[in-house]
Amino acid sequence: MIGCGGLVLGVLLLLGGGAYLLQRAYDGQVRRIAGALPGTAGRPASGRGENWLLIGSDRRADQPSMGARADTIMLVHLSGRGDRVSVIAIPRDGWVAVPGHGTTKINAAFAYGGPPLLIRTIEQLTGVRVDHYAALDFGGFVKMTDALGGVDVTVTKRTHDPMHDRTWPAGHQHLNGVEALDFVRQRWNLPAGDLDRIKRQQAFLHALADKAMDTRNPIKLDRFVRATTRSVTVDDSVSSGTLRGLAGRLAQISLMEYLTAPVDKPAMKDGQSVVLLDAGRLQQLFTAVRDDRIGDYVARNGAANAVETVR
Q: How do the domains of the chain map onto residue ranges?
């Protein structure tokens, strides 16, 4: 499956200044899904800060069967101090234990049991409690990008994507919605494959967030908010008050950082290509998430992804 990566941007509106507009004028357009969060039994205790599970799937007309699995999975941690947002990507091919289904790719959990099973899987893997769930339909992703007049990214080396027959020259790129969609989909001809694709997703996420925050044109902002609210689905505990609180907290944010869950190596399991996670470093990272001390983890491990330039 070819995933699409800008997923979190739809939801970043919930975490950003646009949340104020959402709760006042657009809140009714946000779709809510009942029962997205699993029951309380057996779940980790709440840690410090707040955690959102953000997923996206790439449903395309030319491949209607796609989208049953979670193509992109990110855990977003908002620090309790209100100064930091950490976006942690979990490789969709990560080989993990899925409750009731043995060991398989983590994105299969969504296909087997929807949001509740995916959340249970991630909580079992990380020991981190998921407070809220949000999903982005990438059909609206193109409109979100175009509503802001496109976004800017920087590529370090020329690369060709045979899947979409698109070549990216080295240097600065201004991407419209369709181009951005291809940019975050690419995994072929990237040295680290899906792991480089994650970095592209996060680079795009960073660029779109910056563009949205800097937009002062009310028409562009209105279009962006409308495109976003029509594309995002959240759990039914996300209220207007939740969005107001997020908007207030974001005003204090001084750092947004991007990480990937620690990886051991690629492997073949049951005839399929998978990603083996590094259990030791994974535990260190998510202990830091629970304790709201990701900054200490990054300082020790140099683990944050660079998003200003990508492969």
A: 8-141+194-301
Mean pLDDT calculated for residue range 189-201: 92
Q: How far apart are CA 121 and CA 134, in angstroms?
A: 16
User: Options 3.30.450.20, 3.40.630.190, 3.40.50.720, 3.40.50.2300; which CATH number does 8-141+194-301 get?
Assistant: 3.40.630.190
Residue of 128 and 28 predicted with greater confidence:
128
Q: Which residues, including other chains, have CB under 8 Å from residue 244's CB and lie 6 or more apart? A: 19, 20, 23
Confidence of residue 137 (pLDDT cuts 50, 70, 90): confident
Per the prediction, the chain carries an average pLDDT of: 84
Strands 159-161 and 263-269 come out as unpaired
Report which of residues 209 and 133 the model is more confident about: 133
CA 167 to chain centre: 25
Q: What is the mean pLDDT of residues 47-64?
A: 72
